[in-house]
Design a protein that fits this description.
alpha+beta, 318 residues, 10 helices, Aminoglycoside 3'-phosphotransferase, Chain: A, domain 2, Phosphorylase Kinase, domain 1, 9 strands
Length: 318
């Protein structure tokens, strides 16, 4: 959600004509996030988010936008994409694929409390349950093969301690493939900045542009690693317990998932440690850019290795 592709007012006004939203009142770039160019757009018809996609193919984008529409139409609080006068969600602006979606109320949380974690867990469980009937498929392009590619690229830039940690974790993960665990549509990036709240009400889940088919428990682990850790990277038992209880109210865990939790929380931490290292060492140029600290996910990974990710909270029924 950085701005890599500047858009001029006249260009945006021409783009909006295709939606019968020709009277532009205001627009501004959004600096949060790292993957795409985003603008807040205000017209006489309402408030929207314009996204110019910097990396994805048209096929991937149709999947993302169709999924957002599907979930919104099934009651999930996510932004429904707007169709243009020809019924298309996906357009082109400045030579980039582009889409306009609803701007949802609320703001992201810096320090979520247990009650908010419970609400989010409940909605993630609903997404996993509702997503079982979504007909389209997309492979996870940031799975184990991508981890190995990133590790080879990044190892020369790491110190000896981090290189050893990375080698050890890749070796550990190579022995865990989690065959037979439930799979389906996953958000794959449900961090605090991708959920909007008004007080304790969840008003929006946004940024589905990593969504894919994957292990449902892995999606829960990604979420827990951001919503439920303290400053040292360790899981906060109260928030984690609330997240899991909320989640299980919508999708009870299957046999084998509690046992897989320690390894899957480590896999989720490894994936984001690698992506943040890549963004740090190989940044893309942009007018407004924003990168996140990879050290945070290194600390989370190390904490999981030491504590086993509080596996008892998944198996106890608390």
């Amino acid at each position: 959600m950085s701005v890599y592709t500047p858009v001029e007012r006249a260009e945006l006004e021409r783009f909006l004509v295709g939606y019968s939203h020709s009277h532009l009142l205001d627009f501004q770039g959004i600096s949060a996030g790292i993957e795409n160019t985003n603008y807040f757009v205000t017209t006489e018809r309402g408030e929207y988010v314009l996204t110019l996609f910097e990396q994805h193919t048209a096929g991937e984008l149709h999947y993302f936008l169709d999924l957002m529409a599907f979930l919104a139409e099934h009651g999930v609080p996510c932004a429904h994409p707007l169709a243009d006068s020809q019924g298309r969600y996906l357009r082109t602006l400045k030579g980039k694929p582009a889409a306009l979606v609803q701007r949802l109320p609320g703001s992201s949380l810096e320090r979520p409390v247990a009650a908010q974690c419970a609400v989010l867990g409940r909605e993630l469980g609903r997404i996993h349950r509702i997503g079982q009937s979504f007909p389209q498929r997309r492979a996870n392009n940031r799975g184990p093969g991508w981890w190995r590619q990133m590790a080879e690229k990044l190892q020369p830039l790491l110190d000896a301690e981090d290189r050893q940690l990375l080698r050890n974790e890749l070796s550990f993960q190579s022995g865990h493939r989690f065959e037979g665990l439930p799979r389906g549509v996953i958000h794959a990036d449900l961090f605090r900045d991708n959920a909007l709240f008004v007080d304790e009400k969840l008003t929006g889940i946004i940024d589905f542009y990593y969504a894919c088919d994957g292990l449902l428990l892995y999606d829960l682990a990604i979420t827990a690693n951001d919503w439920c850790v303290d400053e040292s990277g360790k899981m906060d038992e109260e928030r984690l317990g609330a997240l899991i209880r909320g989640y299980r109210s919508q999708r009870p865990l299957a046999p084998g998932e509690a046992e897989a939790w320690p390894a899957i929380t480590r896999a989720a931490a490894l994936r984001f440690w690698l992506s943040r290292l890549n963004d740090l060492h190989f940044p893309r140029e942009g007018e407004i850019t924003h990168s996140k600290d990879p050290e945070a996910f290194k600390h989370i990974l190390v904490a999981h290795i030491d504590t086993r990710g509080m596996v008892e909270l998944l198996g106890s029924g608390h």
